[in-house]
Hints:
The protein is mostly helical.
Amino acid sequence: MRKLVNNGQDRPAKASKRAPGRPRSERAREAILSSTLLFLEDWRNSFADLTIEHVAEAAEVGKATVYRWWPTKAALVADAFAGSVTKKLHFPDTGSVARDMNLQMRQLVKILRSRRGNVVSALLGAGQSDSTLLAAFRERFLKPRRAEAYATLRRGIERGELSASLDLDLLLDALYGPIYMRFLIRHDPLSPEFVDQICATIFLRLEAEARAKAHAVRRDGNRRQEGKPRRSGAGKLQRSYSLQRRKTSEPLVPPKPKELESA
């Protein structure tokens, strides 16, 4: 493209420089995710109310741009929620498995009680009649959190806080199931104190069982050690004599006592 400059000479126009910062595609992607969250954070809106057209219009992009990154509305909503809370839901490493789980579960409760909780409600509610939505939620949000939880529990096993024979999936369901039940059914308050009760009920028992098993292993080891017969001098001589008999075919005569030799 060419333009006329003030001195009357026809010169090529310089290409405009893009302002420094994030690439345009990244800004568009963040605008799409933000528009999705803002829509669903309003409790009056449901997953069914959300349309790709609305998201594209709010983010000031074309529908094709949205579909370029997310093949379905379910994938978009799951990614929008997961991306907004991932950093807040990392598991710490304090040296205590009970405390690590407690702190992360408290953060989850805090998120569920905020406006982000409306997004989870929309996801789980619509997911009862839309299997693709639940699959997207499991794959993009639950699965990565579950992997971190496994690593946290395995650290507890290595430290001897938990038994190596634990069913980790069953343990995680027992920890998080009550949280989601109160969140969805709302029969009782969902609070940090409730998380403390869950962790105390489960981990006090599990840690006691791990200590009891470790004690039993040490006790059995000590008993086996104490029950081993001690080797006497006569026993060693007899084993040496037997070994010689096995090594040669010639008959061996046991050594004579010194009293007989001097006679």
